[in-house]
Amino acid sequence: MPVFVALYNSLNDAGGRQTLLRYARGEVLDAIGERLDVNRLEGTPAKTTMRFSVSTPQEKNIIIPKWTKVTPDSDHYFATDEIAVLQAGAYSVEMPTSAVSNGTEVQRLRTGTITTIVDLIPYIESVTNLTAKRPEAMTASPTPPRATTASASGSVWHPPRDPPRAPNRLTSTG
Q1: Average pLDDT, the chain
Q2: Could you give phi then psi for residue 54, rounded to 5 degrees?
Q3: Which has more pLDDT, 131 or 88?
Q4: 145-to-34, 92, 137 alpha-carbon distances in Å
Q5: Is 81 exposed, middle or buried (0-12, 13-18, 19+ CB in 10 A)?
């Protein structure tokens, strides 16, 4: 299959079809958009809500710093968006986190899959993601914004087609 894709891409490039918006990719697509004063949307990080937990309530508050990192697989990382305080006597605290890098891989993570604390915090024994939110730029909308030539994932945006016109019927009044 990769051979066919490479062959198709080379035919696409050799035939000059890259200069057409429908077939353009990468830098050529960006150049066409620039000519029309249209920019590609930047990717946005995936977001989730994390729960940091202790097994035994503590007598003092536990501070969870901003940028505390967690990971599902040691390849993709999430960092807390703000400082959180696990109150004395509480078992857990929930806080928003964002992916450290953009990409479709982190947007496919399911609830409960981010469970490894990278930046260890005393007394915190477990962490888990409660939600998995896709960034706003990646969610489907009824009509794509006009100021984009491609989404963060690289798919091409096609402008809406004109509505079909009624056939032109000539009548004589003769």
Answers
A1: 76
A2: -120, 155
A3: 88
A4: 16, 40, 10
A5: middle
The continuous run of DSSP H or E covering 169 comes out as none
- Name residue, tokens 């390849």: 75
pLDDT of residue 172: 52
Report the alpha-carbon distance of residue 66 to residue 47 in Å, rounded. 15
CA dihedral (55, 57, 61, 65) in degrees, to 10, reads 10
Question: Regarding predicted confidence, which is higher, 106 or 119?
Answer: 119
Please list, residue by residue across 96-118, b when 16 or more beta carbons sit within 10 angstroms of its beta carbon and e when fewer do. Answer: ebbbeebeeebbebeeeebeebe
| CB burial readout 134-167, b (16+ within 10 A) else e | ebebbeeeeeeeeebbbbbeeeebeeeeeeeeee
pLDDT at 11 over 80: no
Identify the CA nearest to 85 among candidates 95, 98, 77, 96: 95
The amino acid present at 61, given as its one-letter code, is N
- Residue 49 has a CB neighbour count (10 Å cut-off) of 15
Q: What is the DSSP letter of 167?
A: P
Quote the CA–CA distance of 76 and 107 in Å, as a whole number.
11
